[in-house]
Amino acid sequence: MMSLSQPRALIEAWVTVLLAPIAWAVALGGLYSLTDETCARDGRLPMDALAAACLALTLLPAPIAWFRARHTPTDSNAGERARFLFNIAVGLSALFALVTLMTAVPIFLLDSCRT
User: Fold this and answer.
1) Is residue 73, in this structure, part of any structural domain at all?
2) What's the total number of domains in the chain?
3) Among residues 112, 105, 103, which one has the least CA distance to residue 20?
């Protein structure tokens, strides 16, 4: 197992923490910017694809962080910090997946000119 003091492990920990909020922010800005174009072209595929991709990106860190949190030794301060970061990543992934899903529900259910 890698120590959190190694650069690769530190990058992995922070990517799992930050990927879900960044994917939600991309969904929020991207879906807003695609609304007028989608209404004008009467095609919902770009909005549906962006919403689905961002939802998948918010869910991606959860299983990775869950596995890493369960297999990180806690015999040192670095191990405890790593486990804490991975547990935070699991929670953030679940939270932002729900928020992204709530953002995408109108996209999937309503007409593109009404969202």
Assistant:
1) yes
2) 1
3) 103
| pLDDT single digits (tens) 26-79 | 999 999 898 888 888 877 888 999 999 999 999 999 999 999 989 887 787 878
Q: Which pair of structure tokens corresponds to residue 42? A: 């009467």
Q: What is the total residue count of the chain?
A: 115
Gap between the Cα atoms of 93 and 115, Å rounded: 25
Q: Is 42 left (phi over 0), alpha (psi -120 to 50) or beta?
A: left
Residue 1, in any domain of the structure = no
Give tens-digit pLDDT for 12-28: 889 999 999 999 999 99
Domain residues for the domain of 27 are: 8-109
